[in-house]
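anyone seen this seq b4? input:
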Amino acid sequence: MYHELNRQLTSQHEELRAAAHRFAVDVLRPAATALDRMEADDVSRAGSPLWEVFRRWYALGHHAAGIPLEFGGVGLDALSRHLVLEELGWGSAGLAVGLAVASLPFEFVALVAGMTGNKELLGEVVTPFVKDDEARFVGCWAITEPSHGSDALGVGIEGFTRPAEAGTCRAVADGDEWVVSGEKAAWVSNGTIATHALLFCTVEPALGPAGGGVALVELDGPGVERGRPLDKLGQRDLNQGAIRFEGARLPAHHMLVGPETYPVMLSTVLAFANAGMGAIFTGLARAAFEQSLAYARVRRQGGRLIADHQLIQGKLFGMFSAIERARALSRAALVHNTETFPPALAYSIASKVTCTQTALEVAGEAIQVFGGMGLSRDMPLEKLFRDARASLIEDGVNEFLALVGARQVLDNYILDTMS
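predicted toks r here
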């Protein structure tokens, strides 16, 4: 990194970033390279490098970074989390997403326990997760459906309260249990390897998508079936796959959120997820920039280093500037929305949309700096480009997220009436 503009960073922050960077160098990049060349079915099988990544991450205790100290977790501050996520994204965006999502259900249970006082699940799942040093507990976020993708995230926009738009994965109360039926689509990150799902399902179809519920589902019980791992263009090191529910039964206390608070909790999870995506893909953009900078300093064309050609200099400075803008926005959004409830969703969406687009543009420019060598599968740039391209769709396609963000701005932006 050229220079750190944030003077609030302490020596502890710097040490944490250095440790995360070393993990990215030693663990993520070698594993990501190997996983990218493997068949999708092989990525998640026993003996795959994927499991060594998870085990080493858990052994370091980083999986519990978002669990508050009062519940046994690490309780990292928001700035620290941004630093770590950027370094993980620098190492491998796909693996960074997988590691982050692995913790989401357990972090959400802790959040709900802290807000409502309902601590029944803490001892059942959060404590074992915090103590897990072998990646026995892996989470996923099960929201997307075969016929409902980004539209399931449309908090506040037209259609969010329309009954015809309600999701088809539904939970029905049955005594002191809930019965879940329906399918979550093949884009569920960690979908075929997760032990627990943070399930976003429909509870009151008459309310449309707003009539949802959030449940913690253990995925090793009856009524749960997995699809095959998804074979895709980018982020091939990120396991994704469908989950089908056929009469799966949950204890009543596993339904964490009902329709009355579903919209605000959906906004909270989306704000957190989108802010994290901003940090991760700032890291990917930086990785592409650093590779092109290093190449420009050794590659000669026209009788001199290409770093001495003004056209290349202009490209490099444009990439540098874009990354600094992405970091500033993603860090501000993640810090604010980690520390504020309810979150300012528009800022997290702006972070996700801006940083993923920046990652794709910087990776594309980096390929131009490399020329033909940038297209070679022997060079890491083409993977960065493919991974960045996938980011414009995951966690909500950027065009739709922009509509959700626009609604937030229209509803919440306060104009200065004196101007």
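The radius of gyration is 21 Å. The CA atoms of residues 101 and 203 lie 24 Å apart. kinda curious what u guys think
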